Amino acid sequence: MLVAPSMLASDFSHLADELKKITDGGADFVHLDVMDGAFVPNISFGAPVIAAMRPHTALPFDVHLMIRHPKKYVADFAKAGADIVSFHVECDDDPDEVIAEILSHGVKPAMVIKPNTPAESVFPYLDKLYLVLVMTVEPGFGGQSFMHGPLLKVRQIKEKNPSVLIEVDGGINAQTVLECARVGVDVCVAGTGIFKAEDPAAVIRQLQAAGR
Ligand code: DX5
Ligand code: ZN
After folding, report:
1. Mind telling me the catalytic residues?
2. Which amino acids does the record list as binding substrate (predicted)?
3. CB 137 within 8 A of CB 147
4. Going by C-beta distance under 8 Å and a sequence separation of 6 or more, which residues neighbour residue 115?
């Protein structure tokens, strides 16, 4: 299992140190949660903060856009150093146009589905996507409890397109990751589980070992 620590749970006053911690700890991606206060009832950080983090690690940046209009901001996140940009199927833009915009900047496109959105909603786009992110909490806040129901969608998406990577996000810890590994999840995001732990590197290794 690949592991993407979510910076949302890190200490924002020491971002460089927090990035070093997870880089030295062997993380696979850095997960960056962008919230606009409209698509979700919370505001986090945007492209300038991501650009400031970029020099502090060589790990791929996995940018999760929880914003109503991703299309017009894709260029900013590409310039800030995003390697993967994911946007919600529930956003207010046309998904084909957002994917085209992401590809035009040489970034890997990904789509996200909320817990109550059916897997079928991403089927028309799978051939163009690098990754599908299946939310296991309602987006907007870190530290929520893991929802089991959305895992049913992992197999449905894999059956439709075995080559697209599946990522899960929300409430992932040493226990819930095992369930994710069983259904074939490739990447897990963990915020609280990693950054609030006494030994973040040990948690990263434990999550990575799931499914091996
Ligand atoms: C929620 C975010 C998640 C969040 C996960 O809207 O997309 O990435 O940071 O946090 P934990 O691991 O604490 O549930
Ligand atoms: Zn996220």
Report:
1. 33, 169
2. 6, 64, 140-143, 169-171, 191-192
3. yes
4. 135, 136, 137, 138, 147, 149, 150
DSSP-derived 3-state class of residue 169: strand
3-state secondary structure of 187: strand
What are the per-10-residue average pLDDT scores of the chain (212 residues)? 98 98 98 98 98 98 99 98 99 98 98 98 98 98 98 98 98 98 98 98 98 80
- Residue 148 pLDDT: 98
Structure tokens at 127: 């051939």
Which of 158, 99, 151 is closest to 125 using CA atoms? 99
Domains of the chain with bracketed CATH: 2-209 (3.20.20.70)
Provide the residues around ligand 2 (an ion) whose CB is within 5 A: 33, 64, 169
**Ligand 1 center to 112 CA (angstroms):** 13
CA of 189 to the centre of ligand 2 (A): 7
CA pseudo-torsion sign 28, 205, 35, 50? negative
pLDDT at 212: 76
Judge if the beta carbon of residue 200 lies within 6 A of ligand 1.
Answer: no
Q: Is any ligand 1 atom within 6 A of the Cβ of residue 193?
A: yes
Which DSSP letter does residue 146 get? P
